[in-house]
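User: Quick one: structure for sequence A, then sequence B.

Assistant: Sequence A:
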Amino acid sequence: MKHWLFLGFAIVAEVIATASLKNSDGFSKLVPSILVVVGYSFSFYLLALTLRAIPVGIAYAIWAGAGVTLIALIGWLVFDQKLDAPAVIGMALIVSGVAVMNIFSSASPH
């Protein structure tokens, strides 16, 4: 169970780091730049811990899919970036693909 928590926190740390990357203005602002380095470092550390129990393909699919979807939503909510229908459909397909992998794949740790 704790490996799923590690994965969840890895996703959150990656999303915070990516949002901070936008705010760092090309690493010209100190605090967001520090959040980028710390966030990505912590995310990869937790992802590495996750890989002790979850296969790399499954863990990475969840990490990347959730990260893409969450950062797109943050871009829409925080940075006023537009999400059109193809973007929303694409995110739905990503989430659906991760769900299919977790539910039906024999590689997924049930």
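Sequence B:
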Amino acid sequence: MRIAGGDPQLGRELIQRYGCVACHAIPGLSSYGANVGPPLHRMGERAYVGGVIANTPDNLVAWLQNPAAIDPRTAMPRLGISEREARHIAAYLVKPH
């Protein structure tokens, strides 16, 4: 999967800035003890995002921006991630590690 307009290196920096590793184990990033949310390994190979929508670039970006708009029961908070930032984060998550 390729994320148009996404830069994986910027995504890595944004993941660290937004503190995603506090809840998720993410490949290539130190996240010891992060087990609130699911591990995010091999995101590009998954069928679903959040267990509720097809894993497409646009859906992954939308989920990162506002997960509760897609699944009101999710525990994942809205962090104020812009579409541009979400594209970078998604690019990091789907790249092979």
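The two ends are 13 Å apart (CA to CA). Residues 83-94 form the longest helix (12 residues).

User: Thanks, that's what I needed.
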